[in-house]
Specification:
The complex is a heterodimer of chains A (about 90) and B (about 200). Chain A has 4 helices and no strands. Chain A has about 90 residues and is an all-alpha fold. Chain A has one domain. The radius of gyration of chain A is 24 Å and the shape is elongated. Chain A starts with 9 loop residues before the first helix and ends with a helix. Chain B has 2 domains: about 90 residues, Rna Polymerase Sigma Factor, Chain: A (Orthogonal Bundle), CATH 1.10.1740; about 100 residues, Winged helix-like DNA-binding domain superfamily/Winged helix DNA-binding domain (Arc Repressor Mutant, subunit A), CATH 1.10.10. In chain B, about 65% of the residues lie in helices and about 0% in strands. Classes of the chains: A mainly alpha (about 90), B mainly alpha (about 200). Chains A and B meet through helix 1, helix 3 and helix 4 of A and helix 2, helix 3, helix 5, helix 6 and helix 7 of B. The complex binds zinc ion (ZN). The site of zinc ion has 6 residues of chain A, from helix 1 and helix 3.
Chain lengths: ~90, ~200
């Protein structure tokens, strides 16, 4: 049935990555999207790098070694509690 | 079952909420001390500025104190507070000074008239994820995220870092889910382009 799947250009493929990574690729695009993956290595590189970008962003921002100690500065605790008394 | 902290947590939580509603001063302090650290971490990720993060946390607790009467026992207290600190951080962002930002259009692939890419994209090697073990590289990635235009950075942080759904992000930012999806896609594309020199195969 591949003749019923219009070929995507690279530009269209890259735009559909948006939905692909959301897990919401329209059903009628799915076969064309897969076909493009099979025949276009540069787009596969691009898709792969976007997945890695997403994963690295998360790792870079949540790595336990980078977190400041979870203890609240005591001054901030005092300020929060004081502002409650003021506003109530 | 002391190993299941979520079960004991639920009972503790119900008691804490009841005490808060009763206006118990010690309960307010406990709320701040028990949840404040994690919430401050969220505000820091969203605002990247210690002073702004403190302000947002304070605003968040003031909102939470006022709204505790409307807290529905159905959701977890931590989830509810997370939502509130995200909203307080978003408010803060709207009033924040402009930072130096990149132009997103300059970082997207360019195409020929026939839809082919003008230049082949830079692929990333398989070691890219392992490189995230490197502290300097993580700092570089965070600084690079900070250079994204605010509208895009905020969506990336909510979706990819805080783990909010598209629907939740759309509600927080008062835009459609389509806008969230597109901004997230553009933000990742731009971030990739900015990181290509450091993580690309030819790097
Ligand atoms: Zn292609």
């Amino acid at each position: 049935m591949t003749d019923q799947n219009p070929e995507l250009t690279c530009q269209q493929f890259v735009e559909f990555i948006r939905d692909h990574m959301e897990g919401s690729l329209p059903a009628d695009v799915s076969a064309s999207f897969k076909a493009h993956i099979a025949l276009c290595p540069p787009c596969v590189d691009y898709l792969d790098a976007l997945h890695k970008t997403r994963d690295i962003a998360k790792l870079a921002c949540t790595h336990p070694d980078d977190e400041l100690p979870p203890d609240l500065p005591e001054g901030l605790v005092r300020a929060v509690l004081a502002s409650r008394r003021k506003s109530s | 079952m002391p190993t299941d902290s979520s079960t004991t947590g639920a009972a503790d939580e119900a008691r804490l909420v009841a005490d808060l509603r009763a206006g118990d001063e010690a309960a307010y302090e406990r709320l701040v001390r028990d949840y404040g650290g994690r919430l401050l971490a969220v505000a820091r990720r969203m605002l990247r500025n210690e002073e702004d993060a403190h302000d947002a946390l304070q605003d968040a607790f003031i909102s939470a104190f006022k709204a505790i009467g409307r807290f529905e026992g159905g959701s977890r207290l931590g989830t509810w507070l997370h939502r509130i600190v995200v909203n307080a951080s978003l408010m803060k962002l709207r009033s924040a000074r402009r930072r130096e930002e990149v132009a997103i259009e300059d970082l997207l692939p360019r195409y020929l008239d026939d839809g082919h890419m003008l230049e082949p994209p830079t692929g990333w090697s398989d070691t890219a994820e392992a490189m995230a073990q490197n502290k300097e590289l993580r700092a570089l990635v965070r600084q690079t995220i900070d250079r994204l235009p605010e509208n895009y950075r905020t969506v990336l942080v909510l979706r990819d870092i805080e783990g909010h759904s598209t629907e939740e992000a759309a509600e927080s930012l008062e835009v459609s889910t389509g806008v969230i999806k597109t901004r997230l896609h553009r933000a990742r594309q731009a971030l990739k382009a900015l990181l290509d020199p450091h993580l690309g195969e030819t790097a």
